[in-house]
Design brief:
Layout (H helix, E strand, L loop, with lengths): L1 H16 L6 E5 L4 H13 L4 E7 L4 H7 L29 E5 L1 H15 L5 H15 L7 E3 L15 H6 L6
Parallel strand pairs: 1-2, 1-4, 2-3
Length: about 170
């Protein structure tokens, strides 16, 4: 399964690449497999590692984590993450905190990554980075935050990388 693949590969790779010096992991939730597999592996290695989920405003997952209730989702434009149901692969108990990120914040961060770092990511990449930057800003300089950049921006050139599309969606100049 997706969860097992991330437990077997992504989690160990993060642990090895950071030499076990990781304080926080940030990921979004689509099927739930990535965040669940990685979180399970990392927390087995060090239960003090905090797992943050980046979730679009409009997704039901933060409300579900906070209250246990399944509410009605709202429309959002970031693709591939968030949900209006709880994915079967998601073990929400492994997630310490869920942060909602607006479409505008996600798309702005993705565009900033392209401009400043040359990383052409999509909306879910922007969502993850927005939360990772916030988490890192609240930590000490010697602490390590890891996130994943799950999508390419190539599919979004006519969307979030288009000023016209961003303007039409109320994301520029407002």
């Amino acid at each position: 399964s997706n969860t097992q693949a991330h437990y077997d590969t992504t989690g160990p790779e993060i642990w090895e690449q950071t030499e076990g010096r990781i304080d926080a992991f940030v990921a979004s939730m689509g099927t739930g497999g990535t965040i669940t597999g990685v979180a399970c592996y990392l927390k087995e290695k060090n239960p003090d590692i905090k797992v943050w989920a980046a979730d679009p405003c409009g997704s039901i997952l933060k409300t579900y984590k906070d209250t246990g209730e399944i509410t009605e989702g709202q429309l959002y434009l970031v693709e591939g993450i968030g949900d209006d149901m709880v994915p079967g692969n998601l073990d929400i108990d492994l997630v310490d905190e869920i942060v909602n990120v607006s479409d505008k914040e996600s798309f702005y961060m993705a565009r900033q990554l392209a401009l400043q770092e040359g990383i052409l990511g999509g909306g879910s990449t922007g969502t993850n980075m927005k939360v990772a930057v916030e988490v890192a800003a609240a930590m000490r300089p010697d602490q390590v935050v890891v996130t994943l950049l799950p999508d390419t921006g190539e599919r979004y050139l006519s969307k979030l990388y288009s000023d016209e599309w961003m303007w039409e969606k109320g994301m520029l100049g407002q």
